[in-house]
Amino acid sequence: MGRRQEHHMTEHHRTxxxxxxxxxxxxxxxEAFTDAGHPxxxxxxxxxxxxxxxxxxxxxxxxxxxAIAASxxxxxxxxxxxxxxxxxxxxxxxLKGRALVTxxxxxxxxxxxxxxxxxxxxxxxxxxAIKNVPSAVGAEDTLLYYGGDNSVFDEFASTLRVLGxxxxxxxxxxxxxxxxxxxxxxxxxxxxxxxxxxxxxxxARGLKAASMVRFSIKWFEMINSVLPxxxxxxxxxxxxxxxxxVNLFLDGAAHDEELGKEANLDTGWHKPFHDLLERAVxxxxxxxxxxxxTEVLKNPAQTG
Length: 304
Known about the structure:
It contains twelve helices and eight strands. It has helices spanning 24-35, 51-54, 64-69, 81-88, 108-120, 150-160, 176-185, 188-204, 213-236, 246-263, 271-282, 293-298; strands at 17-20, 40-43, 59-60, 73-76, 99-102, 124-130, 143-148, 166-171. The chain has an eight-stranded mixed β-sheet with strand order 3-2-1-4-5-6-7-8, sandwiched between helices. By secondary structure, it is an alpha/beta fold.
């Protein structure tokens, strides 16, 4: 798979690739391609960002049109869909017939708008997401997933796999990567704020935040282990055999306030979570699994 196009490749037998946008992630992508022997063309609004890549053998294009023309596969790694369109707009005519892969943050609606724009200019379009940090690009277990034109994925799968060994095609809907990205990413800020509150509580006792890291990791591993159980409860709609009930979590809510007073912490960020627990109890989920909060999230409380 992915090797049939070798007859029209360069003498490197590696697909030429263009990377547009050389922030920390874009630079990591371009570096992975140059290291793997792909003829790599790069463009960035601030040209100085290209210098380290040029020293590794990349070609620095002076315009986006020149960058797009250089390769059959164009990867745009900018911050948002709007910034991607803004960067590509002056060179839109050059996109006709090219495979455009967008790897930026945004909502499913943003991804659909991006696809409409790209297809309107004759590009074949695949939207993706990198589920890791720049330093992990190229590793065997690094996850990237894509949605959109399956012919782009089929043709360039071996090239895209250079960016991460765990490369997944989600389906033909172009907003799937953005949907999964946001659905999965929803855990990040609450989990981090919880850790930061713990770190503040440690420091209030004169202890180092570093002293809790090993135990926090164990906690995250426990959470990982119960996710399949919760997913099964949610998909089946059966919350009647709880390992942890909504009432159990609600009973623990008072402890957050006690810790806050003792350690002089702002625990106000817990209030929406406590409200959600109370709404779940009101809806009859007190003795159900904590995963029943999913049902409460589907049905926001009506105001007025």
